[in-house]
Design goal:
single chain, 1% strand
């Protein structure tokens, strides 16, 4: 739970999560409206249709780099947890390579297989998180969430911006539009999905603060795991870290797979490849190398996730690029009155 280990980390962080969810919902609604202009194309095809070939290439490069970068960060974060808490004697690189190879295989199989796997594990992930959060209410201390807004609004706003940055991942939807079922309500499913994820985030952060308190949470590398370790239901259900591990592995595996897939789609379009799978292996190898060399240790990764770094980085992806595309579309529309809506 990076939002508890970077930036402002007071007991109001769960309120910041609610702010982030609202910001993410609004932003995703605007992204959904813009994506509706693409008429089933990717953002790169849409830019080319507007006659902005150079812009399409630039945006394609950005999305490729973004996809590989996020995949590498997720690989490193996942591997750090495994060697820190579960397999201390196993080299970090082992988990990075094994996870990357599995993600490569799933991305190689295509979006249909990715979706089938997601349909199977998604209920386990969501259901598991909800059960863990509910169990934490059994032993928590209500005093942990008080006093509210003790430090004023500034920490809440900073925390909201930090957490909102993590919602920026939804921009890869721009590369998945051709696979969207025509019966889906394009303008509602993305913002509703983000709001649902935001509510789950609020519940999770609240459970951490309620269960172990913010003073303990900020000192732990993985506060959610620390919460799981405290769970004991009628002294019968204990030691559920394995359940947490299942959730962690499944969610990170799907995220890495999806971003590698999106990066291969973007790269394949850039080079006019008939099969985007031709670049998937090189992109996976690049992600593995970046996961190893970008950060010397986990503290450097945490520093990168600070609001003054990660929030700025994500703002370029989820605000600046969509805004540029919108302006470009408006300019082309004014110059071409008969252009389709």
């Amino acid at each position: 739970m990076p939002v508890l280990t970077v930036g402002d980390r007071y007991q109001d962080v769960w309120i910041a999560a609610a702010l982030a969810a609202a910001m993410g919902g609004i932003n995703s609604f605007l992204l959904a409206i813009m994506a509706g202009l693409y008429r089933g194309q990717t953002v790169l095809g849409f830019l080319e249709e507007l006659g902005a070939g150079i812009s399409a290439k630039v945006v394609g490069v950005v999305f490729t780099v973004f996809g590989v970068h996020v995949a590498s960060i997720t690989l490193r974060d996942f591997a750090e947890l495994m060697v820190t808490y579960f397999y201390e004697e196993t080299p970090l690189i082992v988990f990075i390579i094994v996870t990357a190879l599995l993600a490569y295989w799933l991305a190689y199989m295509g979006i249909e297989v990715i979706v089938r796997v997601a349909q199977f594990v998604f209920p386990l992930i969501i259901g598991g998180i909800i059960l863990i959060n509910l169990a934490s209410l059994n032993f928590g201390d209500p005093n942990n969430i008080f006093p509210l807004i003790e430090k004023g609004a500034a920490p809440i706003i900073r925390g909201g911006v930090t957490q909102w940055a993590f919602f920026g991942d939804v921009v890869i939807w721009f590369l998945l539009l051709p696979h969207l079922n025509s019966s889906v309500k394009k303008y509602t499913f993305l913002p509703l999905s983000v709001l649902a994820a935001g509510l789950l985030l609020v519940f999770t952060v609240f459970s951490i603060i309620w269960g172990i308190g913010n003073r303990v949470a900020v000192m732990r590398i993985y506060p959610y795991l620390s919460l799981v370790e405290e769970i004991s239901v009628v002294e019968f259900i204990e030691r559920v870290e394995g359940f947490f591990l299942l959730i962690w592995v499944a969610s990170n595996f799907l995220k890495i797979t999806l971003f590698l897939y999106a990066a291969s789609v973007s790269t394949g379009h850039l080079f006019r490849l008939g099969d985007r799978r031709a670049v998937l292996l090189p992109l996976t190898i690049l992600a593995v190398n970046l996961a190893v060399i970008l950060f010397d240790n986990y503290l450097q990764l945490r520093y990168f996730l600070r609001p003054e770094v990660y929030a700025v980085y994500m703002s370029i992806i989820q605000l600046a690029i969509p805004a540029y595309i919108a302006v470009l579309w408006l300019v082309r529309k004014r110059r071409t009155p008969g252009m389709a809506e």
